Amino acid sequence: MPDGPDQNPTQDPATPQDPATTRDRLLAAAERLFLQRGVGQVSVRAVNAEAGLNPGAVHYHFGSREGLVAALLERALLPLWQGGLESAVLRPGSSGPAQVRELVTAVVAPFEELVRTERGRMLCRLLAQTMLTSERPVNGPPWAGTAPFEVALGRALPELSVREITDRWRLSFTALLEVYGRPLAVHTATSPEPPFPESATVIEFLTAGLTAPRPAGSLG
Predict the structure, then answer these.
(1) Who's near 151: CB < 8 A, 6+ residues apart?
(2) Which residues are CB-contacts of 150 (< 8 A; sequence separation ≥ 6)?
(3) CB-facing half-sphere around the CA of 132: CA atoms within 13 A
(4) Which residues of the chain, if any, have pLDDT below 50?
(5) Residue of 75, 67, 100, 95 whose CA lies nearest to 172
(6) Of the candidates 184, 84, 88, 78, which has an alpha carbon nearest to the alpha carbon of residue 141?
(7) Which of 20, 86, 87, 124 is the most buried (most CB within 10 A)?
(8) ω before 141 within 30° of 0 (cis)?
(9) Number of other CB atoms surrounding residue 175 within 10 Å
(10) What pLDDT shows up at residue 110?
(11) What is the pLDDT of residues 195-206, one digit of tens each?
(12) Has this prediction a pTM greater than 0.90?
């Protein structure tokens, strides 16, 4: 939904409130509206109104709707991945399929947890929308970058070239976003929402793809 002209305020539109508290109000308001209306149907103006703030509040505190969404995703999702990824990504381990499976499991497990609730499914959809709606295969907030995962995958599969590692990881993560970030829809008793695949199936499928033999004739 399009917004009106950028207000571009010269001072905090929420003064004299604490900026941290104002940011929290905006993030909470955005989350409520995304749940009520759907992630593609919420404007900056609506978020400001829901939070009871000046029309320029979102732009002042986050720069844009995209900045607001990135902050919401970081606050809600980063803690879910941080512990497992510090183990699987930052800690050197043995190479081969077992190490790849550990990395994949650390990425899949939070998705499996999130899709059990309406809020979690909304966040998955918001993440997918943010990272897939661009000219690049995966694009999103800095904390969701692919570099740490590619480094870990390269350590586990040293026989693959940097290009092959990059391609395989981006294909895998794009598949995860498509699976867990599918559009939210209204379902009825006669047309129930199809279940998500078993996490064990997803893990084995992605591990198999990531550890597949190097293509014939590839370089590196």
Answers:
(1) 89
(2) 165, 166, 169
(3) 19
(4) 1-16, 135-139, 142, 188
(5) 100
(6) 78
(7) 124
(8) no
(9) 14
(10) 92
(11) 899 999 999 999
(12) no
Sign of the CA dihedral running 49, 50, 53, 59: negative
Tokens of 116: 């059990």
CB atoms within 10 A of CB 132: 17
Q: Write the secondary structure of 81-107 as one string of H (helix), E (strand) and C (coil).
A: HHHHHHHHHHCCCCCCHHHHHHHHHHH
Taking each helix axis from N to C terminus, what angle separates 97-114 and 199-210, rounded to the nearest 10 degrees? 140
Q: Structure tokens of 183?
A: 């559009």
d(CA 201, CA 198): 5
- From 131, 215, 204, 137, select the one nearest 169 (Cα to Cα): 137
DSSP, residue by residue, 5-59: S----SS-TTTTS-HHHHHHHHHHHHHHHHHHH-TTS--HHHHHHHHT--TTHHH
Letter for the amino acid at 210? L
